[in-house]
Amino acid sequence: MRLDKLLANEDFGSRKEVKKLIKKGSVQVDGEVIKDVSHHVDPNQSEVVVNGNVIDYREFVYIMLNKPKGVISATEDSRHECVTDLLDPFYDKFNLFPVGRLDKDTVGLLLLTNDGELAHQLTSPRKKVDKIYEATINGVVTEEDVQAFKEGVILDDDYVTKPAELEVTETTDEHSWVVVTISEGKFHQVKRMFQARGHEVRFLKRRQMGSLSLDEQLPLGEYRELTEQELDQLKT
Q1: Are 220 and 66 in contact (CB under 8 A)?
Q2: Which domain of life is it from (predicted)?
């Protein structure tokens, strides 16, 4: 790409400002001072240095966030805190967005990226990517509920969900602790599936999406970039 476009994308100023920066001799490409604003550079191959600082250029960024309650899965909202508000301002230039969404009061794994192709692969109903949730449910979840999930649940709008896996890990007289695996992502789907069965979800946490599992060492509200291994597995 053009050198002035690269610097503008990397937040070194407006096109006009970065042109002045380049003409002043403040930019080096592979050790050579470049004063031609239209000079083309491959930022993935060349070392670009501005005022002694090496540009860390990346086309795509992939972030794992342990989403807390009270934050919405959006990039901009006038009334609520968004998941992108939790990120360091360094990431603003990448225009990250959440892949799919978690409800405001749902916690756990959320992937943020600017890779639209990967986001489509993970959220397209045709791809049938599994999402795994842990939930605390009011009341006793029965074997009949398990079977209903396996066959598909009729929601309040008469939509029949795709078959889902429901595993009961613990029960008391008042609550059940379950693991739910679904391959689609309808609005409030897990909550609506349990509502259709006469149960209320008290707590909901997503722990896995495709091959990507939540790093349990990551506190609520914290994030980190994916490792190369996590990204490779996710893409395949």
Answers
A1: yes
A2: Bacteria
